Amino acid sequence: MTRTRQWLYAWLLLAPAMSLLALFTHYPAVANLWHSFYSTPKGARPAVWVGADNYVQLAEDPIFWKALVNNFGYALGTIPASIALALLMAMWVHGKVAGRGFLRLAYFTPTILPMIAVANIWLFFYTPEYGLLEQFTKGLGFASHNWLGSQSTALACLMLVTVWKEAGFFMIFYLAALQSMSPHLAEAAAIEGASRWYFFRRVTFPLLMPVTLFVLVNAVINAFRLVDHIVVMTRGGPDNATALLLYYIYEIGFRFWDSAYAAALTMVLLVILGLAALFQFVVLEKRTHYQ
Fold first, then answer.
1. Cα separations (Å) of 260 from 42, 55, 251, 267?
2. DSSP 53-86
3. Beta bridge partners of 124
4. Contact at 8 Å (CB) between 120 and 232?
């Protein structure tokens, strides 16, 4: 087979995937950028070129900045906790522990539950006066508290739901990576007298870096795409305390029907995710060891 035929054969194999990627990812992103420089068409009034007006409005929008700050706080509160808990659970169920199969199933169960079902379950937990959390705190002698109705606790309550749901999903990847490691590494370290913590820090965790990078990318994406839980549990309240960026885009686009401004907000979200992915693959990739 000549080089030209090999080249043509390779591109033919890539064509279906590249077509789908261009049709459902690249084209919508470019179209969204173009739409963000136009006004929203309403009735008989067509869209007109407004330049950077939507971005000027965005810079002067206090709710946008509130949602952005909330989202970064939400990401910082959920990403490290989810990954750390997933790794801890994977290490636990990877060892020789009684009921290991049941524990793995229990840890993974929140992942397979629908998002709306999870939100309704936790909505009952947080219900004032008679919710499960209220019953527990009352038993400890604390006063009743509206967990989702208070600005000081509403966002933290959403973070707890996210960590509970995502940790089991990330655990599966860590568990698969741990099971693929050679047992001879631990045996050699034990012969040399290395402690478990030293072995984890110097051997296990570095070998888990490819999985950690993959999990981190997914965790960052998940932290900026939450809508379901907010719609069911708080609707962005109280006073926008739980309004995250994608939920705000959803409200602008589908509640207030301002698609042009929603497109500008979406471009901000895409830039944030792009910069985060670039940092992860450029900086963390250098510290990643592939077996």
1. 11, 10, 13, 11
2. HHHHHHHT-HHHHHHHHHHHHHHHHHHHHHHHHH
3. none
4. yes
CA distances from 192 to 73, 157, 197, 205 (A): 43, 46, 14, 19
Q: Total structural domains in the chain?
A: 1
Phi, psi values for residue 38, rounded to 5°: -120, 165
In one-letter notation, the amino acid at residue 111 is T
What does the pLDDT look like over 77-135, one tens digit per residue?
999 999 999 999 999 998 777 777 888 888 888 888 888 888 888 988 998 888 888 88
Secondary structure class of 157 (helix, strand, coil): helix
Query: What type of residue sits at position 1?
Result: M
The Cβ of residue 214 has, within 10 Å, a number of other Cβ atoms equal to 15
CATH of the domain at 105: 1.10.3720.10
What is the 3-state secondary structure of 246-271?
Answer: HHHHHHHHHHCCCHHHHHHHHHHHHH
CB distance 147 to 242 below 8 Å:
no
Percent of the chain with pLDDT over 70: 97
Q: Which domain holds residue 172?
A: 60-287
In a domain? residue 83: yes
* Cα–Cα dist 236/239, whole Å: 7
pLDDT digits (tens, 9 = 90+) for 26-78: 899 999 999 999 999 887 788 899 989 999 999 999 999 999 999 999 999 99
CA distances from 58 to 113, 246, 261, 264 (A): 36, 14, 8, 8
Q: Are 112 and 166 in contact (CB under 8 A)?
A: no
